[in-house]
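2024-03-11 09:14:02 INFO queue: dequeued item Rab-GAP TBC domain-containing protein, len=423
2024-03-11 09:14:02 INFO validating residues
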Amino acid sequence: MKVDPVPSPSPLQSDQTQTKYRSSSVVGVQPRPYAPTMSSGPSALEKVMSRTRPAYLPPKTREEDLKHLHDWNEMMKQSRAAEERRKAELAERRRSREMSVDETIAFWEREIVPDWRAAMRKPHLRRAWWNGIPTKLRGKMWLSAIGNGLALSKDTFRNCLARAKRALSSKSFPADVLQMIEEDIIRTLPTLQIFHPEHGPLYQDLKDILCAWVVARSDEGLGYVRGVSNIAAMFVINMPSEQAFVAMRNLIERHCLRTFYGGDSAEDYLEAYYRIFDTLLADGMPKVYFNFKQHQISPSLYLPEWVDALFLEHLPFEVCARIWDVIILEGDAFVFKMAIAVLGVLEARLFFPERKELLEVLRGENKAALEVARRTGVAIDMSARYEHYGMTEHTLWERVMEMDEWWRETTWSRLISRELPDL
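2024-03-11 09:14:37 INFO prediction written
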């Protein structure tokens, strides 16, 4: 039986076959079996350019892919350079402001320190306080402005700490509370490294104050509240432990903070503060207020995190120091004013159609913002969760100043009288 020979391909067919295999390498078809290739996964070209082309369009040529990859690399390079310039400008602006504030120490010691209450009646001296207290004088001025309405003696801290140490040594100090304290300390201003359990120079001071605070609270039937370590830490940084304990107790005794730290017994007061905040938000940012209502985003989902730590878990330390200066001077009203200012800086991000995305923004966990930060080389600091949103001291204070157009202290007083008539 005669078998017909297999015809050899024509030159045209051979060219078509080669063209077919050449094009298959562009669109991702497996190469011929006799030409194996080593691959460690998708190339940068495939990740960045080819995979992003809509399926209904013809594949790009290799030249086009390479050109787009080059353009993308150039854009990323320019973006990283721009971010480095922005960080350098921000650091320079911060240094310049700190220097200008510290240079006013002589002015403060002459004009404000001798009688700060009288000084605050003069607008230009009040503006100096709003611009920030010099670091050297911050502890002293905070103590003066907070006062000692609880009439705590200088021995109060030592007595409470002695009781706490006896409880610790006898194993009667609640183990779950001690665990919460240790966990809180680890999360407190981690970038400063001064409260680290192993090598932080102020770790023991902070732990002592928190344990003493638990003992003092137990006399009132109250327990530990997560996040209070931020409040204690801010005082420990600025003054000795005995003074820090007295200042902390008196600050938290102010009605707003006492309510947010009051647990179940303060639930009615807490709801009243939420209604006050909602009213202020509706007055100042009606579109955000309406969008929050549409997605059932109530103040209870984000305001406690801001108030409990007085913004220390969401904003950079240097920004919070100035915010604390004004909160200690002006009282509860400025806590709410700053909370509205934070939403003002975030406003462009607060119109997502999904509730989940809105909550991610408010928690500082918005995936798109985090990805942009990673691509552009921005350091992501989850102890200052809003920093990668571009929230700086400058942007926040701009919003605070803009609020003067509608914010009225009489409005705050009226809302307090309406919602908390027994104050």
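2024-03-11 09:14:37 INFO annotate: Residues 156-251 form a domain with the Helicase, Ruva Protein; domain 3 fold (CATH 1.10.8.270).
2024-03-11 09:14:38 INFO item closed
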